Amino acid sequence: MLLHLLLLLCLTSSLIVQASVHEYRNERFMSKGNAFVFHGGSEGIYSSSPSDNFTSDSDSASFIRFEKIKFQRSEEVSNRSSLPIHAVVFEVEDRENIGGSAYGGQRAVCCTSDLAKLGVCSHGDVIYRPSAKDSGWPQVFGVSFAENELSVTLPTRSIQVTRTGMYNLYFIHCDSDLKDLVVEGKTIWKNPTGYLPGRMAPLMYFYGFMSLAFVLLGIFWFSQCARFWREVLPLQNCLTLVITLGMCEMALWYFDYAEFNETGIRPTVITIWAVTFGSIKRTSARIIILMVSMGYGVVRPTLGGFTSKVIMLGVTFFIASEILELMENVGAVSDLSGKARLFFVLPVAILDAFFIIWIFKSLSATFKKLQTRRLLVKLDIYRKFTNALAVAILVSLGWICYELYFKSKDVYNEHWQNAWIIPAFWQLLSFSLLIVICSLWAPSQNSTRYAFSGSSGDTSAEFEKDDYTLTLIKPSPVPSHEVKNLSETRLLQADEGEPEKDLEEDKRE
């Protein structure tokens, strides 16, 4: 159906973030069927109590207000009057009430000559039927051009919302002479608790909760670092960085949403900082997990030849993630089409998959080396770490399937009240994984048990040498007399002391 096509086009192309103050700057109408349409916005709005003395100045009122909406036409067609230009506001459940057809034919938004003959509507008007739940909806009103008028202004009007739902606004006209019509002005959409869109409102409280959670985690972690500062490992310093970034990110998101709720306009500077801190945190977390999987700080002092590759992957992921988050969070409605957004999502998804593959391949290699050298304490902590990662990956895959199902079944955003759960889940999952990692590598008096040591069975040089041997050179049988000589040589090296071995490690690195 035509209206379904319009809704699908506008709702699927809109971003997750929508401004409560929708501004129109010389926007043009699109030809759809027998009508010319401009989508003015769609938002979830919670109901407020009906009032006979309703005013848009009330703090607890829900409303949609039209301010300085002006239509302009070209001078070539200004010598005659026009058909009405309608503003149509309806709840998404009433979408079937917009448009009609004669004798079961093709559905149309504008009244056709056949329908006019049946007395259903007047020629040039928008076809609609009253809602079964509220006879006062949809709200349809408009304005027309008089002869020789180049512009006309829609009277300022506020519509009270007394029923919770996803509301849509379309400007529609049926006059082919107005195909070059443009609209400017703004509409203001408000919920009882503020200007934050309904499906985003719960996220403000969620980010407040997450800020408190990160503060509590930070208090525990920083107190442990201060208590055992002599035992702090480089890996634990990296975790300190991630916790600090997380606290800053959650606080910035909370203030971003609070400001949005107060003014109805997204504070661009705060949003950019929140997005940047979040991208740095996600990049740092992935790099740290990869470094741990490769044995950094536990079975090897450096990453050796892998350092540049890890840095390159991290920088690429940060750039892709930053661009995607900026596109999603900084802007207005319908800034990106569905295909354009997919263009930014795919690089992040591919890089994430590459991280996961590299992490588990590195863990497998690290496990083999730890088992060979019988480093049981480190093997135990790596086993717990691997189990936590595996659970997180499985839960992520399950949630992705649910998210795809949710979006496929909610084409018109009818379940907008639950939409906030999707981004909230990813924050909770990453925070839970961070807690697990922090509990495994928390600073303590025994932290050195997990640190790299220069013992004969725990050298970075041997680690990298074995890796390259396994991948680049097919090993050949070693004669028995060489095995004996090799064993004697290793015993002699062990008796000579550690300084010389450390120097040899540095050379091989």
Briefly, what is this?
With 509 residues, the chain is an alpha+beta fold.
Sum up the structure in keywords.
disordered C terminus, alpha+beta, 5-stranded antiparallel beta sheet, 14% strand, 509 residues
Helix content: 40-55%
The arrangement of helices and strands along the chain is HEEEEEHEEEEEHHHHHHHHHH
Q: How confident overall, as mean pLDDT?
A: 81
Shape: elongated
C-alpha end-to-end distance: 67 Å
Sheet having the most strands:
5 strands, antiparallel
Low-pLDDT regions: 1-18, 332-337, 456-509
Structural overview:
By secondary structure, the protein is of the alpha+beta class. Strand 2 and strand 3 form a beta hairpin. It is built from twelve helices and ten strands. Strands 1, 4, 7, 8 and 10 form a five-stranded antiparallel β-sheet that branches. Strands 2-3-9-5-6 form a five-stranded antiparallel β-sheet, covered by helices on one side. It has helices spanning 2-13, 113-117, 201-227, 234-263, 268-293, 307-329, 338-373, 376-409, 421-440, 460-472, 480-495, 498-508; strands at 21-28, 30-32, 35-45, 63-72, 85-91, 139-143, 151-154, 157-160, 165-173, 182-190. Helix content is 50%, strand content 14%. The radius of gyration is 32 Å and the shape is elongated.
